[in-house]
């Protein structure tokens, strides 16, 4: 589910009802480790979350209080929780998961209050009503929505080669994907998709349906309506695609790749730039697989997949989803394992992630549209001079994260023989430490990886004459993907990272020769 920053605030009751994350795919055992532990408790939490999410809370209240949970993933979690609810709560949950066309007889959900109409073309059917607050502004808008969704289908399934959403039989009239138009902007929601029926014989595949805002009014979303429609359709349709791979996959992968898909389908809109300060471009110290239930990290980390696709081709993301898929012939792997497996053919995750962390310190030169992006901040800034030639610090770095230190030469260090010696004493090699030095020189940007030994130590020397060098950034990287899985967290494999808070000692010294 996409969220506008200005509408991300909701009732305080929702803040306390944390989204319950379905377990991603991985190695199967008996019992299946993907099944949530403490089933009754987590199922009740999933139910209460969606009840609060669909509550009729005034938009002014939502804007003034705490952040709302993820709608698509909250609906997904409730779908997973159904078997663990008692009969009464299961009935309530099915009302919440019901399609809008179930109507006013569904007092717990968001059903239409009047009979609906339907228009179908190609692979999609759009449902709407002619009256009430859910009515779109015109039939022309319905046609625009239908045309946009078919265009998105052509791009994501046709051009990019992803699996198409699973058919739903005759629900909604036929097997085509059903999309419902409703007034969602007052709730701070662009749209959402939800899994609805498991595919027979495939536990983690499902058909589903989607709900989009009925008009994407500029007053609610802050952008031209057609632009908001295009990016929302690109994002939410990809959730429906994901249900054909594994609807139980790790939430960060679901949201980060759906936000990356906006760049593929609606590149000119650039709505996803609003999330850059919250992902690793703006907050490199936050782990890549962080799923922030009250924030935007998972949206901002679409840039990781942008980095991969710009270097290895757009098909690399589809390869990751194939490894993560739960269908016959797929990899049945959880998110970071799937990423690691695909990148093994491209130099490995450690080298790739090191390159990504370094690229984020110079986004203007590293990304095609980086001129409009922020640059990763630094944890410390030093200026070395003839009478102050050395500096030292200790920095901790979490898994799949990085920290940056900026070093500048004083104007007195003009001799061309000045060099900067960078000495790193990091964690053991088993925890996947890495480092790269990025320099701004008169000849442009220069990057040099620091070779770290098994003990995590390494040194490198780079130019440091004030005549030639403006600055040097030392990027300290923790590329660990080691987890203890199935602990009901929102990280990879519902796990706990084994290599957080790893210490790096960094010493930089200006030397001659």
Please outline what is shown here.
It is built from 15 helices and 16 strands. By secondary structure, the protein is of the alpha+beta class. Residues 6-31 and 58-69 have low confidence and may be disordered.
Describe it.
About 7% of the residues have low confidence. The longest helix has 21 residues. The strands form four sheets. A five-stranded mixed β-sheet has the order 1-2-3-5-4. By secondary structure, it is an alpha+beta fold. Strand 4 and strand 5 form a beta hairpin. It is 30% helix and 22% strand.
- Which structural class do the helices and strands define? alpha+beta
Radius of gyration: 25 Å
Beta-strand percentage range: 15-25%
Largest sheet: 5 strands, mixed
**Percent in helix:** 25-40%
Query: Strands across the major sheet, in which order?
Result: 1-2-3-5-4
- Morphology: elongated
State mean pLDDT (0 to 100 scale).
90
The total count of helices amounts to 15
Query: Using DSSP, what is the number of strands?
Result: 16
